[in-house]
Amino acid sequence: MTDENRGPRREGGRDESRRGSSGSDGGSRGRDASGRGPRGAGRPQRDDRRGGAGPRREGGRDGARDDRRDGDPRDDRGPRGGGRPDRRDDRRDGGRPSREGGRPTRGGADRDQEQRGGSRLAPKSPRRPEPRIPDGVTGKELDRSVHQQLRTLSKENAEGVAQHLVMVAALLEADDIDGAMAHAETAVRRAGRVPAAREALGMVAYRTGDFARALGEFRTVRRISGSDHLLPLMVDCERGLGRHERALDLAQSPEAKRLPTQEKVELAIVVSGIRRDLGQVDAALVALQVPQLKKSNQPRLAYAYADTLLGLGRTAEAREWFERAAEADTEYETDAVERLEELDGVSMTDLLDGADEEDEDGDE
Known about the structure:
By secondary structure, the protein is mainly α. About 55% of the residues lie in helices and about 0% in strands. The longest helix has 19 residues, at about 155-175. The radius of gyration is 33 Å and the shape is globular. The two termini are about 45 Å apart.
């Protein structure tokens, strides 16, 4: 993923979302989960259940009350509760019908009917065709832990989902984000309760810079699996959404303190980036001073440390740490070599010009 997609994030190297790609909520609800609308909507008035006798006090007992009130001007008001207009109807443009019609919903009966039946009656969008699986992709390429998750599915479905997850990882590696998204969405449609499928979709969304969607998928993985291994990426999503304080709170949570070593390293890189976003460069450098910094197998951590030193103007030290990162980066996770060339004033154009000159000398 490019830096432009993720904001000012070069501290960890080229792309940290590739690690573990595919390997390891939404919509508003009505007032009643059954789709019936608010409790009591459409329920008849108590008087209606008494054989249609009308308003409760209309005739009194044997007409005795009416006889005693002959000539009383108050009789023009009609029976109590029977003829009094509902003033609230005027204020809400018909939002509440009279009490004889039952207990209404807020916003009117028409909207209640739409909420109760609209979503069920609306035509469903046609299912999109699944992306093709190339020959040779069996699904057995996945880790054993992922196959354990797929055991909750039928054999045929598990094999298909496994193939799609393999394709997600392969296409992310090839930077084919659209293709990876198609396979990830298919895997989720077929196995929405499998953590690996939701993680794969979250990884693709993360690569595209859709941090809100990625965060939602990572939260789902955490909820259904009980694992906190995606917490560094969740913190980075909060950062990408501009919620730096919330990101720092999550990074300091008890769950973060229990992370395995490598996840703690990734979290330190993210926290350092947040501090730099906030203009706290000194604090960003301190965030990276974890025990693993002294080890030679942490190219991304060394890279982040070098980049932060450069931000503080400590160029000589930064060059030393870029060299350490380049030596440790056997899988080309960072662009430490290019950063060293920049510091040394060497560009790719200069290298190509030199090669052209050598070719011309050979021709002569």
